[in-house]
Amino acid sequence: MHRQQFDTLDLNILRLLSGNARKPYLEIARECGVSGAAIHQRIQRMYANGVIRGAESLIDPESIGYETCAYVGIFLRDPVQVSSVIEKLQRIPEIVECHFTTGQYDIFIKLFARNNDHLLDILQNQIQDLGLARTETLISFKQVFRRPMAVQDPVAPKKEK
């Protein structure tokens, strides 16, 4: 996707939605000083252009029995197999994020398990069975903070003297 051009209203809308994705359009309109129809049109355009890709409900994993959060760095035996490995990783419901990365790992994933025994089972019986070279696992003791993407005004180009 190419970089979008945003005016002040677009950026204000994005800031308000990043703080509360369920904020009513009319409330956004009041805060921005424009009509509800204008907000609706802007938000629909941002959805159509892929700027806004959806809204999510954040569920506390521990409250539904998932006490262990882990990050796994994956080393592939053969980089050609990346597509098939990702396809298989998508079938493991405990995996919530998957990234291509620079550095030592070919793929980096985040997952939630009920406990350490469940994590071990996922690693040994689902992830290692994908024919990987090896993995490295980091267990998160506690998420310290999580926040939405910061929406900032674009930096104006410097004028030449």
Give the tags.
elongated, 161 residues, 5 helices, 4-stranded antiparallel sheet, alpha+beta
Any overview of this molecule?
The chain has 161 residues and is an alpha+beta fold. Helices cover 33% and strands 19% of the residues. It has 5 helices and 4 strands; from the N terminus they run αααβαββαβ. The chain has a 4-stranded antiparallel beta sheet with strand order 2-3-1-4. The relative contact order is 0.15. The mean pLDDT is 92.
Please tally the helical runs, counting DSSP H or I stretches of 4 or more residues. Answer: 5
> How much of the sequence is in beta strands?
15-25%
What does the main sheet amount to? 4 strands, antiparallel
Rg over CA atoms, rounded to whole Å, is 21 Å
What is the residue-averaged pLDDT?
92
Helix share bin: 25-40%
Q: In order across it, which strands form the biggest sheet? A: 2-3-1-4
What is the rounded distance between the termini?
34 Å
* Element pattern in H and E: HHHEHEEHE
Structural class: alpha+beta
Spans of at least 5 consecutive residues whose pLDDT stays below 50 are none
